[in-house]
Amino acid sequence: MVIYKKFAFDSAHFLPNVPEGHKCKNMHGHTYNLTVYLEGDLDTELQWVMDFKELKDVVKPVIERIDHQLLNDIAGLENPTAERIVVWIWEQIQPKLPLLSKLELNETPTSGAIYEGK
Ligand SMILES: Nc1nc2c(c(=O)[nH]1)N=C([C@H](O)[C@H](O)COP(=O)(O)OP(=O)(O)OP(=O)(O)O)CN2
Ligand SMILES: [Zn+2]
Q1: Could you give the CA distance from residue 61 to residue 99 in angstroms, rounded to a whole number?
Q2: Range list of β-strands (E), the chain
Q3: What is the 83 CA–ligand 1 centroid distance (Å)?
Q4: Catalytic: 68?
Q5: Pocket-forming residues, ligand 1, beta carbon under 6 Å
Q6: Family assignment (predicted)?
Q7: Partners of residue 33 on adjacent β-strands
Q8: What distance lies between CA 60 and its chain's CA centroid?
C-alpha cells in the first residue's frame, strides 16, 4: 500500500552556477509543492500504513526551516536546484520515516524532481 501527503512552501532562490544571462541566476521565488510517499503494509488493527498526522509531525518542522527563506542561505542548499532540494529534504526526514519510498517536488506547475533514495 502506498500513501501520500502533500505540503507547500514558498521560498526564494537563485542558481549560482548557471552561465551569465541564464534567468535563474537572478533571485526569484517559487511556491514549491512536495508530495511525500510511504509504502508499507496495513496495520491490522488500525487499517492504515501510518497516521497522516504523525507523518505531518515529521515533515512540517523541515518545511518550516525553508518556508519564506532564501534557500541559498541554508547549509546544504547553496545551489538549490529542485534535484538538490529534494535530496536535502529526504536526508532530513528519512531517518524518522523508515517507510519513506518517494519524494516528488514541483518547483513550478511544469517542472520538478522525483527522488526514491540512493
Ligand atoms: N534540472 C533543473 N533545471 C532547472 C532548475 C532545476 O532546479 N533543475 N531550475 C530552474 C529555475 O529555478 C526555474 O525557476 C524553473 O525553470 P522553468 O521550468 O524553466 O520555469 P518556467 O516558469 O520558465 O517554466 P515554463 O512552464 O516553461 O514557463 C531552471 N532549470
Ligand atoms: Zn527557480
Answers
A1: 19
A2: 2-13, 28-39, 100-108, 111-115
A3: 11
A4: yes
A5: 15, 24, 81-83, 107-108, 110-111
A6: Belongs to the PTPS family. QueD subfamily.
A7: 8, 106
A8: 10
Of all helices (H) and strands (E), which one includes residue 110? none
State yes or no: is 78 an active-site residue.
no
φ, ψ dihedrals at 65, nearest 5°: -70, -25
Residue 13 a catalytic site member: no
Closest by CA position to 36, among listed 117, 118, 105, 110: 105
Decide: helix, strand or coil at residue 29.
Answer: strand
How big is the CA angle at 6 (ends 56 and 109), to the nearest 5 degrees? 150
ipTM: 0.94
Give the model confidence (pLDDT) of 96-110 as tens digits: 999 999 999 999 999
**Over the stretch 24-53, which tens digit does the pLDDT of each residue have?**
999 999 999 999 999 999 999 999 999 999
